[in-house]
Specification:
The chain is globular. By secondary structure, it is mainly β. Helices cover 6% and strands 56% of the residues. The chain has a single domain (2-20, 27-749), classed as Maltoporin, Chain A (Beta Barrel), CATH 2.40.170.20.
Length: 750
């Protein structure tokens, strides 16, 4: 708390130096002053449910616009978060990167597309949904709400929300046809990609159709030393290659001004991708358990029908109604080799090799409707709505276990197979109702309050090898939020907020029963799980003027009844039923776990961001994040690793109306202790995840225009110093980042 208090003092010190006009006698009756439009101004729809200027709301939110997305030439929405305050990434490769917000990862972060959830109720808790489902060529903005957003969006929004907002067709002049074609290449894994789109309009209709194809090999990490790991040569990070395609299309009908009806379709297919793996022998480590996690096939299809309109009715001024269907199918293969040690003194080490293949298919039908009504001469902006969804999960598992008992006189090999699914088929039905009121009190103070009721029902369905009787669960949750913004002067807003988030247990947490995907463990089901909840408090300020901005926020997020993987004691294992104990023995698991509501986690943090632009087109900026996560009810650590502090700075030259830009940036992640259970083995990298600094530079230009076709080129070189490093969430299961990487994209727009 001492460190947090010091941070708060520093946080608000800029107010002491802010230029303010002397107070006037009739200040209470004056109209609120508005700052000049800022070069850094952004709007968000995710944070409040309707479009707002980021400066005018109490919610901490990051907005990454289409122009920056295109210039960065990133391959995954979450990949854009490395340079932003309060966020981090988990996973490696173009397909598998996932967001971390304020230390929360996996299913404690809600991933949306156009406000509709992409989170999958059958994913492992720590992993969440992959960012690769959304093609960045289709995105107008990435909006990241830092902090709980469960009032508007329901379950999983404990750490925050990442929303990919789809891009509308953009026509130039009086043309009725537009589009682009773009080619990309990256030296990391020799990635090549081709994307194209064509848009057309006729009368009241607009059409859009496009697609992307990408291919890459496994990328290489450079030689060097990181922590206790010393790589003498470059190494391939296995299973980071990619062969995928995405396609999208939409039909938009605008019957009258302010009324829009749209059907949007998307499709994603990926061949073999993986979790990322570097064999221990490449860095001088003997692995007691070798784990390779692969995804042989992934497919995702979505259809979304939406209506938005200005109604001017007594019950709503505007409304938005969305109906969607999606099918998410995936194969998951685990190749696990466990060293079980010698069976007798002086004997060679014996081993158990397990190969498993899981197929899961989750079909989702969902609905969301919300409306906005302005009341009391603009003093109240009321947002309310309902949403419902049903997930139907179908899956199969097949495993082959080869046990090799080695003796001085020979080896004994036995092979066993198992076709019983580790989790039964199940349905997950959720519905919620919410209401929010943005209240203006006087001319300087605004308060936003909201409440939501949510219900989730999980029901196991008939599955071969399972007795599903009694496996029916219900979870009911009320959450709320309260925030306030006070205008100190036209350029400074103070903010304070409290929000309660929640996350309902998913199918895997309740019902998984078998060897864990990471190997060496065995998980037993827990039908008694309840929703975990969090209380988040923010205190901060926002500063904005025509050529500069600053945002500073301190937060505390406490998670109650946190669902974590608890290790069973020998006494607890002895009390399990005989069949379960026999399955544990046959798996040669080194430990037994169960998902339980046992954790109380606390995350304190500070987020600072600033930017300044000169009249000559030079932009300087950066951000700093400090975060500290602890488990306050036990010695065990919270889930996952993230940095303790991160600093990012950039310098950019982009003349107004200029045809080119150049940028240099640098990022440093400070060292932090690895989150290890008290008796867990020390990872190869060591007990401390070491700090690292990486540099990057890029440039882009509009080259020429011929017959209405504009040509643009973008070039980036990342990891300029060819540093060996791993993002902290990927460090203990060692998956380093690529070495020096050159990326080039060429785009023709018509």
């Amino acid at each position: 708390m001492r460190r947090l208090a010091i941070a708060l003092v520093l946080l608000f010190s800029p107010i002491l130096f802010a230029q303010q006009s002397p107070p006037q006698a009739d200040e209470a009756n004056a109209q609120p002053e508005q700052p000049m439009a800022s070069f850094f101004a952004e709007t968000t729809v995710t944070a409040t449910g309707s479009e707002r200027n980021v400066f005018d709301i109490a919610t901490p939110v990051t907005v990454i616009r289409e122009k920056k997305i295109r210039q960065k030439a990133a391959e995954n929405p979450a990949d854009l978060l490395r340079e932003q305050p309060g966020v981090d990434i988990n996973g490696v490769g173009p397909n598998q990167i996932r967001p971390i917000i304020r230390g929360q990862r996996g299913l404690r972060v809600l991933f949306l597309e156009d406000g509709l959830r992409l989170n999958n109720p059958r994913r492992q808790t720590d992993f969440g949904e992959i960012g690769g489902l959304v093609d960045l060529h289709t995105v107008a903005s990435i909006e990241v709400v830092r902090g709980p957003a469960s009032v508007l969006y329901g379950s999983d929004a404990i750490g925050g929300v990442m929303n990919a907002v789809s891009r509308d067709p953009q026509f130039r002049g009086g043309s009725n046809v537009a589009g682009y074609i773009e080619g990309r290449h990256s030296s990391a894994g020799d990635l090549s990609g081709l994307s194209a789109e064509i848009d057309a309009r006729a009368g009241l209709f607009t059409f859009q159709v496009g697609g992307t194809r990408r291919q890459s090999e496994n990328y290489s990490a450079p030689s060097g030393r990181v922590g206790a790991i010393d790589l003498g040569d470059n190494v391939h990070v296995l299973d980071t290659g990619l062969d995928d395609t995405s396609a999208w299309g939409s039909i938009t009908f605008v019957p009258s001004a302010g009324q829009t009806l749209r059907l949007r379709l998307s499709r994603y297919r990926a061949g073999e991708t993986g979790f990322g793996y570097v064999p221990g022998e490449d860095y001088g480590t003997v692995e007691s358990t070798k784990v390779r996690i692969l995804y042989p096939k992934q497919s995702f299809d979505r259809a979304a029908l939406s209506y938005s309109g200005a109604l001017q009715r007594p019950w709503a001024d505007s409304t938005n109604v969305q109906l969607y269907y999606q099918s998410n199918a995936r194969q998951l293969a685990n190749d696990i080799d466990i060293d079980i040690g010698p069976v007798a003194p002086g004997f060679p080490h014996s081993s158990v090799a397990a190969k498993t293949l899981n197929f899961s298919d989750v079909d989702t039908l969902g609905f969301r409707a919300d409306a906005v009504k302005v009341l009391g001469n603009g003093r109240h902006i009321v947002t309310y709505g309902i949403e419902a969804s049903r997930d139907d999960s179908y899956n199969t598992d097949f495993s082959t276990t080869t046990t090799t008992i080695r003796t001085p006189h020979g080896n004994a090999v036995s092979v066993g197979t198992d076709g019983i699914a580790n989790a039964p088929n199940a349905s997950n039905t959720a519905y919620g109702a919410f209401a929010q009121d943005e209240i203006s009190i006087g001319h300087k103070l605004s308060v936003t309050s909201g409440v939501r009721f949510n219900s989730v029902d999980t029901t196991a369905k008939e599955t071969p090898g399972w007795n599903v009787s009694g496996l029916e669960f219900s979870d009911r949750t009320f959450v709320g939020a309260l925030s306030a913004k006070y205008q100190i002067n036209p350029n400074i807003n103070m903010l304070a907020s409290w929000g309660r988030g929640f996350r309902a247990p998913n199918i895997i947490e309740r019902l998984f029963n078998g060897p864990t995907p990471e190997g060496s463990g065995f998980q037993i089901l827990n039908p008694a799980l309840d929703s975990e909840t969090s209380d988040n408090f923010d205190l901060g300020m926002k500063y904005s003027r025509a050529n500069a901005f600053m945002e500073a926020v301190a937060f505390r997020n406490e998670i109650h009844g946190g669902i974590i993987q608890s290790y069973l004691s020998p006494t607890e294992i002895a009390q399990l039923d005989p069949d379960t104990r026999a399955a544990i023995t046959a798996s040669h698991a080194q430990f037994v776990v169960q998902q339980r509501n046992t954790a109380r986690l606390r995350y304190d943090g500070v987020e600072l961001a600033l930017g300044w632009r000169t009249s000559r087109g030079i932009v300087l900026g950066g951000n700093y994040t400090w975060i500290d996560g602890v488990r306050i009810d036990a010695a065990n650590p919270p889930t996952g690793d993230s940095y303790s502090n991160k600093a990012f700075a950039y310098a950019r030259y982009e003349p107004e109306h200029g045809r080119f830009w150049v940028e240099y940036h640098v990022r440093r992640n400070g060292k932090v202790g690895a989150n290890l259970d008290p008796d867990a083995p020390v990872p190869a990298i060591g007990r401390t995840l070491p700090s690292f600094t990486v540099h990057g530079a890029g440039a882009g230009a509009r080259l020429f225009q011929i017959h209405g076709m504009a040509n643009e080129v973008t070039v980036w070189v990342e990891n300029l110093t060819n540093t060996l490093y791993a993002e902290f969430s990927n460090a203990t299961f060692f998956r380093p980042e690529p070495g020096r990487t050159a990326r080039v994209s060429y785009r023709v727009t018509f």
